[in-house]
Amino acid sequence: MDGIVQDITVGTKRGSDELLSACATNGPFIMSNSAPSAGEYTNGNDSKKFKGENRSSGILPSRVIHIRKLPNDVTEAEVISLGLPFGKVTNLLMLKGKNQAFIEMNSEEAANTMVSYYSTVTPYLRNHPIYIQYSNHKELKTDNSPNQARAQAALQAVNAVQTANMAIAGTGVSDSAGGLAGQSPVLRIIVENLFYPVTLDVLHQIFSKFGTVMKIITFTKNNQFQALLQYADGSSAQHAKLALDGQNIYNACCTLRIDFSKLTSLNVKYNNDKSRDYTRPDLPSGDNQPTLDQTMAAAFGAPGIISSPYGGGTGFPPSIAFQQAGLSVPGVHGALAPLGMPSAAAAAAASRIGIPGFASAANAVLLISNLNPERVTPQCLFILFGVYGDVQRVKILFNKKENALVQMFDCTQAQLAMSHLNGQRLHGKAMRVTMSKHQTVQLPREGQEDQGLTKDYSSSPLHRFKKPGSKNFQNIFPPSATLHLSNIPPSITEEDLKLLFSSTTGMVKAFKFFQKDRKMALIQMSSVEEAIQALIDLHNHSLGENHHLRVSFSKSTI
């Protein structure tokens, strides 16, 4: 028999109809509540209109998850990756003609955790939101027909990676929802070589690949950035520790050191950029309050009040060379990052079937959308994105000038720029910054009309990070209303600089020269958007006497 599905145990008649119509483009199949007989074979080409499964009333939890609104070019591995953080994916049915899929988890508990999580966090694949819910079907059984071969190959490759990860550690991890007996679900995380900022959201993205993250608390102790992270179960914590301990978040820096905490539960009082309880969105922000309460601080051995991350000094170690490949930190939920790849064979297998994140060369090209087409230029994007890395090329799309491509020096700089600039306002519009599917920005061919929309900046003298050990590496901060100015000649006064920055259609709220070095100053604009515009307009501005002004974002306020 040539059908896709040999046996589907269904919960209701309506559930049967749903798969009948969904499989209409995939050939014949069988549907039954028990072992099928010859008379039960049904042709899937009876074209009942698909009504979806959004009938929450009456749908019971199931190991089978229904996924809708998939992008046209989605791969089997990307669909599988949606379920990996919550347990083992045991089967997959792709319905590409309908932009849908069914995945089967190893347990109902894993499926329940997955559906619960994605009910509060919208999953994205290839920058498209997708929809996840229980299926009425209780089980999927697929054969080895050609149109399911890729799905089964993807499953086998992912399972091989997971099995080898466990073998490397020499520890068997239970697949049951209960996890390991007596194992704490709380991890203590220390980030060494903190070359780039590691935010609470970055930690959540990374550790969510291995289970449902309930709570995170970040702080600095002994001049080290640390975090406490609580999973829903000890098994997820064990998986994460085995896969992530010793790995780098970014290339050759931000190394994770992970141990189990003596705590079995975290008490989070505030939801802000230092701590968060993902089960309690109603918590206050608690600005300027200590992150840990005294009981937890004592249990963790933290003396006194916990200081905030990046407090005191620069908050960053000396710069280091970028050589080895670190962890990919995808900007969307559901991406399969190359965490603890066990062997070259597994990597090769994953590469052949297109598992995202296993590519040998990570992407350094960003897609910027929602730009102001009347005002945006390659030069302004070069200056702004150059705050976070050495921009190689910029291309404003010829027919869609509200979109642009920016190629950074490497994937680490691209990730850094994306994390800091996504959502920031430029020319009155909030930019959207995502990873592009392109690996490089192509220069226009000779004779091709371009109107100056594509620029090559690979040899620009304005690159901030081309010099190894530059202090610029230690002073990378999110956009703020306060700007740091340097390379100011002695003849320039406070009034000169105030007048200059007021001319960028902004309002100067405060100014202060550095006491020990009048070559540097802080200037505060009335908003972050005004500061962004001032940086674009005045970085490298000539102040005479062969001095060109250097402008960057500051972590300080005046």
What is the tally of beta strands? 27
Q: In percent, how much strand structure appears in the residues? A: 15-25%
Helix fraction, binned, reads: 10-25%
Q: What's the number of helices?
A: 12
Q: Report the C-alpha radius of gyration, rounded.
A: 26 Å
Order of strands across the widest beta sheet?
14-15-11-13-12-16
Instruction: State the low-pLDDT regions, or none.
Output: 1-57, 164-181, 291-361
Shape: globular
Distance between the termini: 75 Å
Q: How many strands, which pairing sense, and closed or not: the largest β-sheet?
A: 6 strands, antiparallel
The SS-based structural class is alpha+beta
Mean pLDDT: 73
Overview of this protein structure:
The protein starts with a strand and ends in a 5-residue tail after the last strand. It has twelve helices and 27 strands. It has 558 residues and is of the alpha+beta class. Mean pLDDT is 73; it is low at 1-57, 164-181 and 291-361. Helix 4 (146-169) runs antiparallel to helix 8 and helix 9 crosses helix 12. Helices cover 23% and strands 21% of the residues. Strand 7 and strand 8 (128-129) form a beta hairpin.
Which SSEs are present, and which pair or pack?
Layout (H helix, E strand, L loop, with lengths): L4 E3 L5 H10 L6 E2 L10 E2 L21 E5 L7 H8 L5 E7 L4 E6 L2 H11 L5 E2 L2 E2 L1 E4 L6 E2 L3 H24 L16 E7 L7 H8 L5 E9 L2 E8 L2 H11 L3 E3 L2 E8 L14 E3 L16 H7 L43 H9 L12 E5 L8 H8 L7 E4 L7 E4 L3 H11 L3 E2 L2 E2 L1 E4 L18 E3 L25 E5 L7 H9 L5 E6 L7 E5 L2 H11 L11 E4 L5
Antiparallel strand pairs: 1-10, 2-3, 4-6, 4-9, 5-6, 7-8, 11-13, 11-15, 12-13, 12-16, 14-15, 17-19, 17-22, 18-19, 18-23, 20-21, 24-26, 24-27, 25-26
